[in-house]
Design goal:
By secondary structure, the protein is α/β, with parallel strands linked by helices. It has 2 domains: 15-222, no CATH class; 234-394, Reverse transcriptase/Diguanylate cyclase domain (Alpha-Beta Plaits), CATH 3.30.70.270. It has 12 helices and 7 strands. The chain has helices at residues 15-22, 31-70, 73-98, 104-131, 139-151, 156-177, 181-224, 234-251, 265-272, 274-290, 319-331, 363-378; strands at 4-5, 255-262, 298-303, 306-312, 335-336, 347-354, 384-388. The protein has a 5-stranded mixed β-sheet with strand order 3-4-2-6-7, with helices on both faces. Strands 1-5 form a two-stranded parallel ribbon. Helix 5 (139-151) runs antiparallel to helix 6 and helix 5 (139-151) runs parallel beside helix 7. The chain binds guanosine-5'-triphosphate. Residues 228, 261-266, 269, 274, 277-278, 281, 304-305, 377, 381 line the site of guanosine-5'-triphosphate (GTP). This is diguanylate cyclase.
């Protein structure tokens, strides 16, 4: 374990706050937050993307009928072919992908490709009908930048890329087939304007979504995290314990709990000062965080210099070894002040494991771990005491009168 240099910054720095301070004009966070943002966006984007695809399919099918009814067959058979053989199937494939959970990782590239194919296909319809002398109105292409930027849920850069490809096709091909210079000028101007406005709106939308993500993340951290150490606070610990207790009751598993108290911490503070005391608590919390490995495990600051570790469904015969590893890792912390090594700190740990099916109240687990911690302290500190599946009679503090 690397040495911890004391004193260091004594408040936990939230990644959400840091990202807020840095700003996100480039619409990009660091890798961990970026992944969290995309994850949080996924379900909303999925719903929007599906709605847009269904509406797109209905619209393009309706325009097949409108084309056939309103423009000469020499052009309408081609425009209908593009709609029926290219655009609608692409939208159907994208929808099919969106309904398969296994396709989650490929959904964004698929939506990007779909948007690009639909954009280019729509421009193709305009170009082809102009070339065949029976032009369909081009106004539909003006909707594309707005739909792609505002409704598909694509990351802004990808929406921009997709729109630019269709715009480039429009700017290169329409002048070749549009005989009327005045109409051409209007068409090009409106297409450019629609792209600028769509990109602007898309940028503002994503910028705001990122700001809300950071605010929500910061608020939930303030509610759930301890301000000094950054690990979970007591409220979050209580909620989590109740949750895993219910889950273990359903699944017939165990819940393990370690209450860990720093030994003689008052002396530590008195000798080295509160600033270094705070930093030592952070170092302890870092170690505990590394011992909450599984998804349902949790490390929390229980209060003052006392910490808690919830282990979901541990092997009861492993608990002593697990507690010992925590104790040893904390004892091995190399705490350094600016110029010298600081007294090592030790902890006492009371560990308990119960099966919720046997004992309905999660408070009994807390009580059992508390009794074990009491025994560890009174047994001389710097040690681990385990109470594994204690009988109700054992859930009594030493000194409690027997009624
Ligand atoms: N620096 C710092 N000290 C804290 C914090 N919270 C609690 N403490 C200190 O932790 C010390 C706990 O003292 P005691 O409860 O007497 O326990 P102890 O000295 O650790 O002794 P034992 O637990 O019996 O081994 C007190 O001096 C508190 O001020 C904190 O956030 N920062």
């Amino acid at each position: 374990m690397p040495p911890h240099h004391l004193p260091f910054d004594t408040t936990y720095t939230s990644p959400y706050r840091e990202a807020m301070e840095r700003g996100h004009a480039r619409l990009l966070f660091g890798p961990a937050l970026e992944a969290g943002f995309r994850d949080a966006q996924y379900l909303t984007n999925l719903a929007w993307m599906r709605w847009v695809s269904w509406i797109g399919i209905a619209t393009y099918l309706a325009f097949v009928a409108i084309d056939l009814a309103t423009i000469p067959l020499q052009a309408s058979r081609w425009t209908a072919a593009i709609r029926l053989l290219l655009i609608v199937p692409t939208l159907v494939v994208a929808l099919a992908v969106s309904y398969r959970t296994a396709s989650r990782a490929v959904l964004t590239p698929v939506v990007f490709l779909t948007a690009t194919v639909v954009g280019c296909g729509t421009v193709g319809i305009v170009v082809l009908s102009l070339a065949l002398g029976a032009p369909v109105p081009y106004e539909g292409t003006l909707l594309l930048p707005f739909v792609i930027h505002l409704l598909l849920g694509l990351p802004w850069r990808q929406a921009l890329g997709s729109n630019l490809i269709a715009l480039a096709m429009f700017v290169v091909l329409v002048p070749l087939v549009q005989p009327d210079r005045m109409i051409l000028t209007y068409q090009l101007s409106y297409m450019l304007l629609a792209n600028v406005l769509g990109a602007w709106g898309g940028y503002a939308l994503e910028h705001r979504a990122r700001a809300s993500f950071l605010t929500a993340g910061l608020l939930s951290e303030l509610a759930e995290r301890d301000g000094l150490t950054g690990i979970h606070n007591r409220r979050s610990f209580n909620d989590h314990l109740e949750r895993v207790w219910k889950q273990a009751a359903r699944e017939g598993g165990n819940v393990g709990l370690a209450l860990i108290d720093v030994d003689h911490f008052k002396q530590f503070n008195d000798r080295h000062g509160h600033g270094e005391g705070d930093a030592a608590l952070r170092a302890v919390a870092d170690v505990l965080g590394a011992h909450a490995n599984r998804p349902l495990d949790l490390a929390a600051r229980y209060g003052g210099e006392e910490f808690a570790l919830i282990w979901y469904d541990p092997q009861p015969d492993q608990l002593h070894a697990m507690g010992e590893r925590v104790r040893r890792d904390i004892a091995a912390l190399e705490l350094h002040a600016a110029d010298a090594r600081i007294d090592p700190i030790t902890v006492s740990a009371g560990v308990a494991v119960l099966r919720p099916r046997d004992i309905p109240r999660h408070t009994d687990l807390l009580r059992a771990a508390d009794i074990a911690l009491y025994q560890a302290k009174h047994g001389g500190r710097d040690r681990v005491v385990v109470l594994s599946h204690p009988a109700p009679g054992e859930l009594r503090f030493p000194g409690t009168p027997v009624s």
